[in-house]
Design goal:
- The chain has 345 residues and is of the alpha/beta class.
- The protein folds into 2 domains: 13-179 and 264-337, Alpha/Beta hydrolase fold, catalytic domain (Rossmann fold, 3-Layer(aba) Sandwich), CATH 3.40.50.1820; 186-255, no CATH class.
- Helices cover 39% and strands 17% of the residues.
- It is built from 13 helices and 10 strands.
- It has helices at 18-28, 82-93, 123-135, 148-159, 161-167, 185-188, 192-210, 212-217, 222-226, 231-242, 248-255, 285-290, 319-337, and strands at residues 35-43, 49-57, 68-72, 97-102, 141-146, 168-174, 268-273, 294-299, 308-309, 317-318.
- The chain is globular and about 55 Å long.
């Protein structure tokens, strides 16, 4: 058993608003000036490819048995997003090798098939994880997911709990959603939700245009996807039919992490704010409390993938990445000492 105490999140009083946290953090987070990336392309069994990035910091050299941190990015993000770069830098300075997956279509080069990624499609995550274990057979692994990647991570950990037990010593989820009994604000809401959704929808629909023939041949409704105003409409046109779901309800129900939380056997830190502007109050506190492998860090403020402390341009820091870094350090120390599970939060 290892003890872990979450530090309190203390935003500056002028920067507590959820939209301020969400937008300013996205604008502020940048890669360190001395960070570079090595990209590796892996061919998949279905004739496609996945690009993964290996971040590097000048002056930091890692051995083949250095522990790994495998990062899953958010919706329409990429492995080199600002929130990812912040986590990579912390990991590298701890002697941990970070690796970021770019979901199909997210690396800057369009993939070869009609398929890309979904809220719950974990096949590519496992494929890359197995590839990494073959490349670094003596290295311990940790996982972190952000937003959509956080839901994907929690589902993955529960879905393959026995597989994870031998291969992954810790995980962290930043701003996951949990339940889909009804569409969340980001999917159908107005106001600020429409602003966030519009930016993501434009990116999704641009990809549909580039792969229209492939998507049509696979059973997707290209016209409906290009005229969709909400994620629900888009998923009805593209996601559900392409991935073999009869309805979007079936897709959401199968993909939501709430159905997998009870099965997670990996020490996992879950960070969510109560004021997250993307989601409604869907936090299954009872399920989280009942699983001793889950450590909940639920904050009053923080927005969506925000958790910014201090003042931008002066003394800013990012609470979620810092807690994840501390959690991984505690897990590594516990593993060295022969202990495996968190004691308390």
């Amino acid at each position: 058993m290892f003890a872990f105490k979450v530090e309190p999140f203390q935003p500056h009083p002028l920067f507590r608003h959820p939209h301020t946290q969400t937008i300013l953090t996205a604008l502020t987070l940048r890669a360190a000036k001395d960070m570079s990336y090595e990209r590796v392309r892996i061919d998949t069994p279905d004739g496609d490819f996945i690009d993964i990035d290996f971040p590097q910091l000048q002056g930091v050299t890692l051995s083949d048995d250095a522990p790994m941190l495998f990062l899953l990015h958010g919706m329409e993000g990429q492995a080199r997003s600002g929130y990812s770069a912040q986590m990579y830098e912390l990991a590298l300075r701890q002697g941990i090798r970070p690796i970021g997956i770019n979901y199909r279509s997210c690396s800057g080069e369009m993939n070869r098939t009609a398929f890309s990624y979904t809220l719950g499609h974990t096949t590519d995550v496992r494929f890359v994880q197995d590839w990494l274990h073959q490349k670094y057979p003596d290295a311990l692994m940790m996982l972190i997911g952000v937003s959509l990647g956080a839901n994907l991570l929690l589902k993955y950990l529960g879905e393959y709990s026995a597989h994870m037990r031998d291969k992954v010593i810790a995980a962290a989820a930043i701003s996951p959603f949990f339940q889909t009994e009804k569409p969340h604000r980001i999917s159908t809401g107005g106001g600020a939700s429409r602003f966030y959704r519009g930016r993501i929808m434009r990116q999704l629909q641009n990809k549909v245009r580039q792969k229209a023939d492939l998507i049509h041949a696979a059973g997707g409704d290209v016209y409906a996807a290009l005229t969709a105003k909400t994620f629900l409409e888009f998923d009805e046109a593209i996601t559900a039919p392409l991935y073999g779901f009869k309805t979007t309800d079936d897709y959401y129900r199968a993909s939501a992490s709430v159905g997998y939380l009870a099965h997670i056997q990996t020490p996992t830190l879950i960070m969510r704010s109560l004021d997250d502007p993307f989601f409604d109050n869907d936090i299954p506190s009872d399920i989280i409390r009942a699983n001793p492998h889950l450590v909940a860090a639920i904050t009053e403020y923080g927005g969506h993938v925000g958790f910014m402390e201090g003042v931008p341009g002066w003394n800013v820091s990012f609470w979620a990445q810092r807690q994840a870094s501390r959690f991984f350090a505690a897990a590594l120390a516990a593993h060295t000492q022969g202990s495996a599970w968190p004691e308390s939060a």
